[in-house]
Amino acid sequence: MRASPLLTIVTFAFIAATVGCSTIPEQPATETVPVAAAPLVNDFPTRDRVEYVLNCVAQHGGLSYINQYACGCKIDKIAEKLSFSDYEAAKTFSYLKSTPGESGGVFRDPKQSKDLRAQLKEAEAYAEKSCFVK
């Protein structure tokens, strides 16, 4: 039995209308949020999160579900406390502070270096306390 052309046209029109309705994105509500009330942006790139987790897992005895979960939790907690740019600067200062002589002084001595390293140390302590089951 053959379908009538009118039924075919109505079927295609129904399908087109249904698909068209389901692909139209919903418009978000436009509320103004005061800049002072905006939360700290969790802007850590995925690549850096993965690198952190892999290094953390290696430092805590190798790959296991518990270590993987705890290390993922740890970088999330650090991201709550520091922006990525501050984290990156603090890590750089931390790595290079042991450079001997005047060359290392650029990384050891500035107030910014000391402040960022202290913030990173506090964030890591907070993360360690929050994420690892003792």
Question: What is the gist of this entry?
Answer:
By secondary structure, this protein is mostly helical.
Please provide a written account of the structure.
The protein has a domain at 41-131. Helices cover 69% and strands 0% of the residues. The chain has six helices and no strands. Helix 3 (65-81) crosses helix 6. It is globular, with a radius of gyration of 26 Å.
How many strands appear in the DSSP assignment? Answer: 0
Which structural class fits the helix and strand makeup? mainly alpha
Cα end-to-end separation:
73 Å
Order of helices and strands: HHHHHH
Radius of gyration: 26 Å
Mean pLDDT: 77
| SS strand fraction | under 5%
Number of helices: 6
Shape: globular
Largest sheet: none
Low-confidence stretches: 10-25
Helix content: 55-70%
Quaternary structure of the protein: single chain
Tell me the layout of helices and strands.
Elements: H1 5-23, H2 46-59, H3 65-81, H4 84-96, H5 101-108, H6 111-131
Give me some keywords for this one.
134 residues; 69% helix; mainly alpha; single chain; 0% strand; globular
